[in-house]
Design brief:
The complex is a heterodimer of chains A (587) and B (269).
Chain A (H helix, E strand, L loop, with lengths): L1 E4 L10 E4 L8 H5 L4 H10 L9 E4 L1 H5 L8 H7 L4 H10 L12 E4 L2 H14 L6 E4 L7 E5 L10 H14 L3 E6 L3 H8 L9 H9 L1 H5 L14 E3 L5 H5 L11 H9 L5 H5 L12 H11 L15 E11 L2 H22 L1 E12 L4 E12 L2 H13 L7 E12 L17 H16 L4 E6 L9 E5 L9 H13 L17 E10 L9 E4 L2 E15 L9 E9 L4 E7 L5 E6 L2
Parallel strand pairs in A: 2-4, 7-8
Antiparallel strand pairs in A: 1-6, 1-7, 2-3, 5-6, 9-12, 10-11, 10-12, 13-14, 15-20, 16-17, 17-18, 18-19, 19-20
Helix pairs in contact in A: 8-14, 15-16, 16-17, 17-18
Chain B lengths: L2 H19 L8 E2 L4 H6 L5 E2 L3 E6 L6 H12 L5 E5 L20 E4 L25 H15 L4 E7 L5 H14 L2 E6 L12 E7 L14 E11 L8 E7 L5 E3 L15
Parallel strand pairs in B: 3-7, 3-8, 4-5, 4-6, 6-7
Antiparallel strand pairs in B: 1-2, 8-9, 9-10, 10-11
Helix pairs in contact in B: 4-5
The chains are: A alpha+beta (587), B alpha/beta (269).
Chain lengths: 587, 269
């Protein structure tokens, strides 16, 4: 993971400030030429002055000396952008190594996030030799590159050496940057931006510059902000401990949530981690909770890869179209062969195969196959696409086909035993193969893992999540691999049974109404699914209710009911309506 | 000696010889159920791996699945996942850890669109005889079941299924023989009248409704009587296992016979 900062061209280095367009512009035609709405929202949050007109978002060192500050209205900044000889003299006394200050006025440029992004992508291309997956950080205004260097360290003499070589390479291109190596995207970003986003207000920058400990006594977490320490390596599993002294802005939580927390006196991540997790959703936005989960390691975060300029692709066109499914299958098989050959040549595996089938009418059918672990074998890739092809409706001749592969580094190959293959079966590898088939035929949402939740409401007691995440994040395969490993590995630790209570294994997704009004199923019969059940005994109530601030209020008294035939059901009385529902069956 | 007693003696002797001739249980291919009385009913004093095992429930809410899961916990001491094919989308794994299964080992397969399997269409519980799956759901569930049964990375596959053709059963049998995966089929009571290709078939009835007269039992929860009704390629042993589910925790445990009131043999010391 690395953070970069583009060094300004020498002719612009003197005194440069970047300002936003007029965010108050209301004409739709004019707005199209200006900042996108997302960027506008971000700027309005950070810079209050930008709500009423153009405002400075960044200033160079010399523009700063001229009195230009981020967050300042453009008109005010222009009035201050005079040559700054006196200020410069004072500054040079403090720092004799500062280059000569030009005497021209500060130049102002309109901010273009799109151009920034394009420049950042250009830098990303220069880093491709260090990692198979390179992406931008997913903030409103990205200013860092994210590299998935899993397994790449050994090629460069270790991860530390890799990071040093990366920084040197970018320095050679005239870029000043630092790199942070960590085991999660969130913690890498946090250490690269210890005080939050790079676009900081005047107040933030002043605080950073004037901090008495700023230059003398740096925390480990602050090292990355110092360009003199270009590489920071966070040992695996220690990110959370290192994060604790950082301010809450390092967690990338929205500005409004930062303000809320600041009002409550929560200023550091240590304080934030100490808050009861069940109370946070009622006080913070969903995005803030997600960011907090990501930085705590509860939720995974993926790097969205920048598409390669030279992708693994194959194309088929013919004068004679493929008219039926079998012919299309042959075309797909042919393209897969070409793709597999390219994958082998590049020593990478495919995590997704996309095939666009162009029909006679001119529109296209999309055939997409995802794999759990990167695959190179043409036969296995074809099997996955073949499953998808069976579900595709081919009602018109296919004129051409274009296939591309999203690639990732291959897992380390393991040699199999020659004479006793059974003893050396790797359950995780075997499971990955069947998961490929299941997810491609049934869909990702049908293949799930379960995690217990600390929620008394039965419907919310378990969180189900697809074992293969939705989306196209290329490094999701590493996360999936870990999940598969957990599935097949026996857990020697005993489950904490004391915390569990008796819950039915069959929980109806929608409670079934069995009685209302004065009739109680605890003392009489109830009918469910066409059968009448006579209650012989009941146990309860167990009251389950949500807190008052939840949108859907739940107030229920649950009972375990045993019928004359020995069947056990879980029923509840809704306290608001006095209706009785059957919610579960003790299977 | 009368002819009938001679006949029964001969049958008993034959039974003994057959039991001795059966392949001996090895640690590799047999897993203890965790219940001594249930182990005693089984040909190799445990459940085989790479087999199809049916659990027939006497009705909805008889806790047959709880018992099956408690038994499955023994299989999961070995590497491999527990796959649950849940066509009704109503399986709630909150109780798994109480039954000795870490939730991290669960792979939940829910074929079919969740909207089409809402209670409007599938209104029964797993072992209810009234629930109806659509043909798509059924075929997707069977396909998933077979794929998982063929996978050596899956330790146990559990599913609820009301009807199963002989062809499908035979395919499952061949799949598990090759992969070593164990398939647990939870069946409704109507399955008792259907042909079975399973290696073992258990029947679970409520002990609360039909108490066993020949067993003195004590306990504090719902009682279940488990009997082995089919055992392929082996001689079936008669008897029941009485299990109880704890009211507070939902855990399943064994109800043992009380010790005999007769004084202990002094020479045995």
């Amino acid at each position: 993971m690395q953070r970069q900062q583009i060094q300004l061209p020498s002719e612009q280095r003197a005194a440069v400030a970047v300002y936003t367009s007029n965010v108050g512009e209301s004409k739709p035609a004019a707005r199209q030429q200006r900042l996108p709405e997302d960027d506008l929202r971000f700027v309005r949050e950070i810079f209050t002055a930008a709500r009423s007109g153009p405002a400075i978002v960044a200033a160079s060192e010399y523009a700063w000396l001229a009195g230009v500050r981020p967050g300042m209205p453009l008109a005010e900044a222009r009035s201050m952008s005079v040559p700054v000889r006196n200020s410069h003299r004072n500054y040079r006394q403090r720092n004799s190594q500062t280059p000569a200050v030009p005497t021209q006025e500060t130049q102002f440029f309109e901010w273009s996030p799109a151009a920034d992004r394009a420049a950042l992508i250009e830098v990303a291309e220069a880093t491709r030799r260090f990692a198979p997956i390179v992406g931008l950080d997913e903030t409103a205004v990205p200013d860092s590159l994210m590299l998935d260097i899993s397994g790449c360290g050994m090629l460069f003499g270790g991860e530390s050496s890799l990071a040093e070589q990366l920084v040197k390479r970018l320095n050679a291109r005239g870029l000043l940057c630092s790199a942070v190596v960590s085991d999660s995207v969130a913690s890498a970003w946090a250490f690269a931006h210890p005080r939050g986003h790079a676009l900081m207000t005047d107040q933030h920058i002043s605080a950073q510059r004037n901090s008495p400990q700023g230059a003398k006594k740096r925390q480990p977490s602050e090292a990355s902000s110092n360009w003199e320490t270009p590489v920071v390596i966070i040992p695996p599993g220690q990110a959370k401990a290192w994060l604790q002294p950082l301010p809450i802005a390092a967690a990338r939580i929205p500005h409004a949530d930062i303000q809320t927390l600041s009002q409550l006196g929560i200023l550091t991540l240590k304080q934030l981690f100490g808050l009861p997790t069940e109370d946070l959703p009622s006080r913070l936005s969903a995005k803030a909770i997600l960011r907090l989960h990501q930085i705590s390691g509860i939720d995974d975060e993926f790097i969205t890869a920048i598409p390669e300029p030279n992708p693994v692709a194959a194309m088929w066109t013919s004068e004679f179209p493929a008219t039926n499914r079998d012919e299309v299958r042959q075309v797909v098989a042919h393209l897969i062969e070409e793709i597999a050959e390219q994958l082998q040549r590049r020593s990478v595996g495919a995590v997704r195969i996309s095939c666009l089938l162009k029909r006679e009418s001119g529109d296209s059918l999309s055939l997409i196959g995802d794999v759990v672990k990167p695959l190179q074998s043409g036969a296995e890739l074809f099997e996955i696409l073949n499953i998808r092809l069976d579900a595709l409706k081919i009602d018109q001749p296919v004129m051409s086909a274009h296939m591309t592969a999203t690639v990732a580094s291959l897992p380390v190959a393991r040699q199999k035993d020659l004479f006793n293959a059974v003893e050396h079966i790797n359950p995780a590898e075997e499971l990955a193969v069947v998961l490929n088939r299941l997810t491609n035929r049934l869909g990702k949402a049908a293949v799930l893992t379960a995690t217990p939740q600390n929620d008394p409401v039965p419907e919310n007691s378990i969180q189900l999540r697809p074992i293969v995440d939705e989306g196209t994040a290329s490094n999701s395969s590493r996360v999936t691999e870990q999940r598969i490993q957990n599935l097949v590995t026996p857990d020697n630790t005993t489950a904490d049974k004391a915390a569990s209570v008796n819950r039915p294994l069959c929980l109806l997704s929608k409670p079934h109404l069995i009685a209302s009004g004065s009739s109680s199923p605890l003392t009489s019969n109830f009918t469910w699914n066409g059968q009448t059940h006579s209650t012989a005994a009941s146990q309860g109530p167990e009251r389950i209710q949500t807190q008052w601030w939840h949108d859907t209020a739940i107030h229920r008294d649950y009972y375990r009911v045993t019928t004359n035939h020995g069947s056990e059901f879980w029923i509840f009385q809704e306290l608001n309506s006095s209706q009785w529902f059957l919610h579960g069956v003790f299977e | 000696m009368s002819s009938s007693s001679a006949k029964s003696l001969a049958v008993a002797q034959l039974r003994r010889q057959l039991l001795q001739s059966q392949p001996s249980a090895t640690e590799h291919n047999v897993v203890s159920t965790g219940f001594r009385t249930l182990d005693r009913l089984l040909p190799q004093s445990g459940l085989p791996t790479g087999a199809v095992i049916e659990w027939v429930s006497g009705g909805a809410g008889m806790r047959a699945t709880s018992i099956a899961l408690k038994v499955i916990a023994g299989y999961l001491k070995r590497p491999g996942a527990l796959a649950v094919v849940d066509s009704t989308h109503s399986f709630c794994p909150a109780q798994l850890e109480q039954l000795g299964i870490p939730m991290s080992r669960l792979l939940l397969i829910r074929p079919g669109d969740s909207s089409s399997s809402s209670p409007d269409n599938v209104s029964g519980s797993f072992s209810d005889t009234n629930y109806q799956l659509s043909s798509t759901q059924r075929s997707e569930a069977l396909w998933s079941l077979e794929q998982l049964a063929r996978c050596a990375g899956v330790n146990v596959v559990l599913t609820w299924i009301d009807r199963l053709s002989s062809t499908a059963q035979r395919r499952l049998q061949l799949a598990v023989e090759k992969s070593g995966t164990t398939v647990i089929l939870m069946r409704p009571s109507i399955a008792m009248n259907q042909t079975s290709w399973a290696d073992l078939r258990f029947h679970v009835q409520s002990g609360s409704a039909k108490p066993s007269a020949d067993v003195s039992i004590v306990g504090h929860g719902s009682r279940m009587i488990v009997s082995l009704v089919r055992s392929r390629n082996s001689v079936q042993r008669h008897g029941n296992a009485v299990l109880e589910c704890h009211h507070e925790t939902g855990d399943v445990f064994e109800i043992l016979e009380l010790a005999s009131a007769a004084p202990a043999d002094p020479t045995a010391v």
